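Example 3.2
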Amino acid sequence: MKTFILLSCVLLSLRSAYALQKALVVNENTMVYADETLEAPIGYIKRGKIITVGEKMRRNGSVATLVVSGKVAYIKVNDLNLDPASFENPTDQSIRMTSREMLDEEIAPLEDFRKRNSLFLDFHQFNMGNQWDDYSQIAGDAEASSLSIARAMYHHRFINPNYAVAFGVGYYFVGQENIAMEALTAEAQAYFSPLYTGLISLDFFVGFGLSALASLEAKGSNDRNNGSLVSYQAGAQVTLIPISSISVHAGLAFRRIAVEGMDDVRFANTNLSGKLNVLRGADIFAGVSFLF
């Protein structure tokens, strides 16, 4: 008899511990955690989902349990509506029922900037357009050279592989017989990849570069001007085997550079002077990336 009573108590305790109830997620992007102390987020659930949680609350009633792909997870009670009468017959189309056990794909994962990162190194040749051609003629140069750009970029591809961002530095330089220009820039770029596979990636991008360390020098006259520039670019690139530890890429862009603070520069052996405002033209580039 005593054994029967003890067994009954154990069964009742287990039933109480694992009793389940429905709950409505009421806050936008409600966080789900792997630990009871809520220090290890694993993702979030969008507002409007009806989920199944344990009736027995943790941490003085502030934390509820749920099962995600066979593992216990935790969620804040303040993010839930635990009154089933208010949502058991929902008229709001944003309220969606789920099964007793949620699957991984129902938990939106958090972005992890420690993963899917690459170092992009590329080299550009930029045709600076008519204003630089005219400027070169005033300086006495027979031909106008292209602007060379070397960049090192920290590249991150998001969980959704169709999107990526990159930040880094660039060095712009051109040297001709009578004039030279250089600038150190901070660079940023955003990508949209309509095609992304293990073999190839097609990326459309927009970006900009900023420099307060631009200089223009007229050789022979010791006339040097310091200023700033803002560079805008939009284009496309192709990356081969983007998931490899080492991959190569090449592309074409349209670039526009607005130059400020470059006052009239006096050239040697002439009374003429010139001033730069806007450089625009095609930018062709290629490079290599290292996945880490």
